[in-house]
Amino acid sequence: MSWTVRLLRKSRILLLSQTRSLASGTAGEIKITQILKEKFPLASSVKVVDISGGCGEMYEIHIESEEFKKKKIVQQHQMINQALENEIKEMHGLRIFTSVPKH
């Protein structure tokens, strides 16, 4: 993570904001991504974003996998919940978006 400092000249307000490079991820993002890639080896896309500001309390997951084929959305989400059973215990919330690859 890096810090960005901006001075608004007219109002003389100093803004300090924290930014994160898209190339790197938080430890939680990396861990959850690894788990999902192991549990869903046919996944063509796995994206995990810490939407809690970096504290690891809430994540958004986007996963596209053949394993979801012919399964209802509820079943797909249950599969994710089962894969992350231990990690979910430490979370405040989780947003899950699943899909099947289009050929």
UniProtKB/TrEMBL annotation:
Keyword set, alphabetical order: Mitochondrion
Lineage, top ranks: Eukaryota, Metazoa, Chordata, Craniata, Vertebrata
Family: Belongs to the BolA/IbaG family.
Chief localization: mitochondrion
Protein's job: Acts as a mitochondrial iron-sulfur (Fe-S) cluster assembly factor that facilitates (Fe-S) cluster insertion into a subset of mitochondrial proteins. Probably acts together with NFU1.
Species, as recorded: Geotrypetes seraphini
GO CC aspect terms: mitochondrial matrix
Signal peptide segment: none
Name recorded for this polypeptide: BolA-like protein 3
Keyword Iron-sulfur tagged: no
